[in-house]
């Protein structure tokens, strides 16, 4: 007799089942967007738990975002109940790396309560080193060094691995030396950056057999979603961990590889079969997410890329609506138009939670935010550090960091004179001097300097009070709930009072943010856990439960799906980005095209693609032409519409004939070679008559509607 299928197998198609049931040995699932890769991986996780092949703590499951981890946890929870609650190793590479590293920190010279630096701290630290090395920070910017170090870390290279050739890439060969100093400095302040979370762990796994064996034994099963976007260090790390048991299942889609700028290597997919001979390779072709028109539109775009592994996708869903391509006048109109469409969708029953606006660049969100704040449309920005990036939040966090870990010099530097307490540059320099000479953290050096007569008067008194306060707060930390501690700390430090004294609307907003911060802390078990969360958090959903539109970058939308998706700013120079265009060649452009593919395939039922005729860039009005990707959308899958009328088709001039009548007009925009930008600047006060006459009605798509410009440029 045949037993009934367990719940997690219900509805899965044969290849998905195969992926779920092939638990032993390496498995590679390679399939296009929306074919149920993540669904199959989730079912696989449920299967392992349900059949007791592994305890929750014996499964390593890597997702790309914290949000994806949360969703997987929820889904598995629904399938197998409480068993999932004990899954400590389900998360992003960074979250898992951090957790492991805390256990073995001493092997790389850190303490287990190390701080995870954000970009800001990282840059400040690098700047100090650059200045100390007598280099001109203007010529050799800290950002460049940060990028390079990050690249090395993504490749799994420690300072010892940097040869002269690599070192040459910064400040005439001094890159390697600064990298080493940076690592030393991080160690001295008991901190690491994001890249270290994996690199340190890789080093540990390589050097310490016992640790490696511990994890090789522990992880009976390893699973990785979005495998196409793993970088070298992640790949090496996985390979080490999986080498013993070889129960590793990876799922990915080469067409969705969009993180090569962060060192991701789509080649890891190809390497997989070599590293794990005899891997079961499973392909999925049925798409369950999107309508045929949406799939057709996405497929038409991605078909323009070369060197693809190539996949067929089909769906049983009804044809549905065509993708709507909207040509509009400018950014504000884009936001207005999207807002109107969302209102209409909401009236016809679509929940705001099911609607997303996806942008290529994060600065594009502002226009929508302004609009939605004005119209009271609830929205959230996902994928950034927005809340935690605000200055007042960062200061408050610095206080908490110092309390959590007094050796956190960067945090201490941030608060030493905030609010102003008369500790000027001179006093700080003295503390620094002593710290450097004696190799001490700044807090210890401060305490030490109070024993001398280096500091006098007000400075001495303030520093004494601050150091005393920190000691007292640390004491309190052992007795009070951490949110309460934070509340008192912010009061006693004078930090809240500083904004209360300001009495501006802005200060009021900052105070609200601080309150919100304390509220957020209540959700965590300890101060350490909260600070860890802040360092790692990539999603910023704020904890509201009312339906909200989601605004995010395409990069952050990977793996997600929405009923209705608005794709904004499909214009040359914005998407594809000017950088990709300027780089020439096909590599960057093909990555942009994969982004376009990811973007379109997020939609279940409806997709809108917008392109504006004018944008304000660096404060100047510039006319733009539709993205080449708009031109690649197959006519039979789209409905085009423009709010402009008359004149010759700019679009056709650029894409149908490939001859560019405006090539010479583009000078002066400062935005790269001529043909990509169609014209010079426009003054918003004086609408350029010439420009209003150009339309975006396009061949071969059908023009559904044509109306006169609904906005004049003057009414910003
Ligand atoms: P992406 O490449 O975008 O990450 P994916 O391949 O991971 O996509 P999923 O997100 O797992 O795809 O699935 C897409 C949608 O299809 C989801 O809504 C999922 O619930 C649904 N789905 C997956 N498998 C099936 C199935 N066998 N039957 C019905 N619906 C399914
Ligand atoms: Mg997925």
TrEMBL record:
GO terms for biological process: recombinational repair. Residues 292-559 form the UvrD-like helicase C-terminal domain. It catalyses: ATP + H2O = ADP + phosphate + H(+); Couples ATP hydrolysis with the unwinding of duplex DNA by translocating in the 3'-5' direction. Its EC number is 5.6.2.4. One of its GO terms (cellular component) is cytosol. ATP binds at residues 31-38. The keyword Transcription does not apply. It comes from the Bacteria. Residues 10-291 form the UvrD-like helicase ATP-binding domain. It holds the Pfam family UvrD_C. Keywords: ATP-binding, DNA-binding, Helicase, Hydrolase, Isomerase, Nucleotide-binding. SUPFAM superfamilies: P-loop containing nucleoside triphosphate hydrolases (SSF52540). GO terms for molecular function: 3'-5' DNA helicase activity; ATP binding; ATP hydrolysis activity; DNA binding. InterPro entries: DExx_box_DNA_helicase_dom_sf, DNA_helicase_UvrD-like_C, DNA_helicase_UvrD/REP, P-loop_NTPase, UvrD-like_ATP-bd. Has both ATPase and helicase activities. Unwinds DNA duplexes with 3' to 5' polarity with respect to the bound strand and initiates unwinding most effectively when a single-stranded region is present. Involved in the post-incision events of nucleotide excision repair and methyl-directed mismatch repair. Belongs to the helicase family. UvrD subfamily. PANTHER family: ATP-DEPENDENT DNA HELICASE SRS2 (PTHR11070:SF2), UVRD / RECB / PCRA DNA HELICASE FAMILY MEMBER (PTHR11070). This is DNA 3'-5' helicase. It comes from Sphingomonas rubra.
């Amino acid at each position: 007799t045949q037993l009934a299928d367990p719940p997690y197998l219900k509805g899965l198609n044969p290849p998905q089942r195969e992926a779920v049931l092939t638990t032993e040995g390496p498995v590679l699932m390679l399939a296009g967007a929306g074919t149920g890769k993540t669904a199959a991986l989730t079912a696989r996780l449920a299967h392992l738990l349900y059949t007791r092949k592994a305890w929750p703590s014996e499964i390593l499951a890597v997702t790309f975002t914290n949000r994806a981890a949360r969703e997987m946890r929820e889904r598995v929870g629904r399938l197998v109940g409480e068993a999932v609650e004990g899954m400590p190793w389900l998360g992003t590479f960074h979250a898992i790396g951090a957790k492991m590293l805390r256990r073995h920190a001493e092997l790389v010279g850190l303490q287990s309560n190390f701080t995870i630096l954000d970009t800001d701290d990282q840059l400040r630290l690098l700047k100090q080193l650059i200045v100390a090395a007598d280099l001109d920070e203007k010529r050799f910017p800290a950002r460049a060094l940060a990028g390079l170090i990050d690249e090395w870390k993504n490749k799994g290279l420690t300072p010892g691995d940097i040869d002269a050739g690599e070192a040459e890439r910064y400040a005439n060969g001094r890159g390697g030396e600064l990298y080493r100093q940076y690592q030393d400095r991080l160690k001295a302040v008991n901190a690491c950056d994001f890249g270290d979370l994996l690199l340190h762990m890789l080093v540990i796994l390589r050097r310490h057999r016992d640790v490696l064996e511990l994890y090789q034994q522990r992880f009976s099963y390893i699973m990785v979603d979005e495998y196409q976007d793993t970088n070298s260090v992640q790949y090496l790390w996985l390979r080490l961990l999986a080498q013993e048991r070889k129960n590793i299942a990876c799922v990915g889609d080469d067409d969705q590889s969009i993180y090569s700028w962060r060192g991701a290597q789509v080649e890891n997919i190809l390497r997989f079969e070599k590293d794990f001979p005899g891997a079961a390779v499973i392909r999925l072709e049925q798409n369950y997410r999107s309508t045929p028109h949406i799939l057709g539109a996405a497929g038409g775009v991605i078909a323009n890329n070369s060197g693809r592994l190539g996949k067929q996708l089909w769906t049983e869903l009804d044809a549905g609506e065509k993708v709507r391509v909207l040509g509009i006048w400018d950014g504000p109109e884009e936001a207005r138009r999207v807002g109107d469409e969302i209102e209409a969708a909401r009236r016809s029953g679509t929940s705001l939670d099911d609607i997303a606006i996806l942008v290529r660049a994060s600065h594009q969100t502002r226009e929508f935010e302004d609009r939605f704040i004005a119209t009271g449309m609830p929205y959230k920005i996902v994928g950034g550090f927005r809340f935690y990036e605000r200055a007042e939040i960062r200061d408050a966090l610095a206080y908490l960091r110092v309390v959590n870990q007094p050796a956190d010099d960067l945090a201490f530097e941030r608060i030493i004179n905030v609010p102003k307490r008369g500790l000027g540059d001179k006093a700080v320099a003295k503390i620094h001097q002593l710290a450097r000479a004696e190799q001490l953290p700044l807090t210890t050096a401060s305490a030490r300097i109070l024993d001398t007569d280096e500091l006098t008067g007000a400075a001495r008194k303030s520093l004494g009070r601050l150091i005393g306060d920190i000691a007292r707060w640390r004491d309190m930390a052992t007795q009070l709930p951490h949110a309460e501690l934070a509340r008192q700390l912010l009061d006693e430090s004078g930090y809240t009072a500083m904004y209360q004294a300001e009495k501006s609307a802005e200060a009021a907003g900052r105070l609200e943010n601080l309150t919100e911060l304390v509220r957020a802390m209540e959700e965590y078990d300890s101060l350490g856990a909260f600070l860890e969360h802040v360092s790692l958090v990539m999603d910023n959903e704020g904890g509201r439960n009312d339906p909200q539109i989601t605004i995010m970058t395409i990069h952050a939308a990977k793996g997600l799906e929405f009923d209705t998706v608005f794709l904004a700013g499909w214009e040359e120079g914005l998407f594809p980005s000017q950088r990709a265009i300027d780089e020439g060649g096909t590599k960057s452009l093909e990555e942009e095209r994969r982004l376009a593919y990811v973007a379109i395939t997020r939609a279940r039922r409806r997709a809108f693609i917008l392109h504006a005729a004018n944008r304000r860039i660096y404060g100047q009005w510039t006319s733009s032409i539709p993205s080449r990707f708009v031109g690649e959308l197959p006519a039979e899958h789209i409905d085009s519409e423009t709010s402009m009328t008359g004149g010759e088709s700019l679009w056709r001039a650029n894409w149908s004939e490939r001859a560019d009548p405006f090539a010479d007009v583009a000078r002066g925009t400062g935005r790269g070679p001529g043909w990509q930008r169609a014209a010079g600047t426009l003054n918003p006060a004086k609408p350029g008559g010439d420009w209003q006459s150009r339309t975006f009605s396009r061949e071969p798509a059908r023009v559904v509607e044509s109306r006169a410009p609904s906005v004049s440029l003057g009414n910003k």
